[in-house]
# Entry
Amino acid sequence: MTDAEHLFTPRDFLRRAISRFTQAGLFFGHGATSALDEAAYLILEGLHLPIDQLEPFLDARLLPDERERLSALIEARVETRKPAAYLLHKAYVGGAPFYVDERVLVPRSFIGELLRSEALVGGEGALIADPDDISSALDLCTGSGCLALLAAGVFPHARIDATDLSPDALEVARRNVGDYGLADRVTLHEGDLFAPVKGRRYDLIITNPPYVAESVMADLPAEFGHEPVMALAGGVDGFDIVRRILAQAGAHLEPGGGLICEIGEDRDILEAEYPDLPFLWLDTEESVGEVFYLPAEAFTPARPENARPEKSRRSRPAEATGAASASRSTERRRR
Ligand SMILES: C[S@@+](CC[C@H](N)C(=O)[O-])C[C@H]1O[C@@H](n2cnc3c(N)ncnc32)[C@H](O)[C@@H]1O
# Structure
């Protein structure tokens, strides 16, 4: 007898999935942080139910084809070690759904949460006081296009460029841009970092580049093996691409603009290497010191003392912006 013949309700499948996942020693970090989170996501999304409402459906009776489907999804998660997002072709970031497959990293950037937080945009003392002030933005290393599309939602008057070196990733991004009907405002470019947008400047640059160090790459759980290497690998200490971004960002920021960059857990390396850069660390519900903000002025050479300073469109809090609220536990992730 198969599992599907013994299990009848979402509660049954939830219990079974948690047992199987735990027994198999799966890794959770691609949209969930525990076996319970992962199982709930697989079951709710597998049944096309709202992913944040498990309780009302726990004891509903399922049709035979639904039971077969859940059974197959649970087995596939264990046997293939593919993150649930790849099995379901869907991931949520900042509360918004995106199509994904193995051509792109499973979206889980903390920048998604930040973009939706009033501490960053629109709230009292926020770095970006008024979202209408952002008329141009660049998402470097866009992957599935998730951050570019979230930014388009948060900054309604912005035109957004999004770049990626991977033509495969850009095909996924193109699909998402189409799904959101935003092709008129989000433009995708293939190429190395800033190369496709040479000479252009932006009010805001956001980026979640590859930043996994070589030694960490060697030890990643099997789930990461399904993600593109070029979406993860950042060279010996992880910061090959981050250094290139820091070297070039200034030439692509408008006066008063800023760069938001996710870098993972090794901020000490950057702070030691760039002692003159005033990194402002933006914390989220799930991260401390993994995303920095740098204003455009941080990149410009020192001005003559009597020169008039540029008028900044940002307010500048002295401290990091503090925790922004994560909308769903299924969005919690690490890499
Ligand atoms: C960590 S993923 C981020 C994807 C997406 N922004 C997200 O947060 O889910 C990094 C992306 O950078 C791209 N990439 C790697 N090297 C690049 C380069 N030199 N220039 C542009 N994109 C690059 C990869 O193809 C991958 O899509």
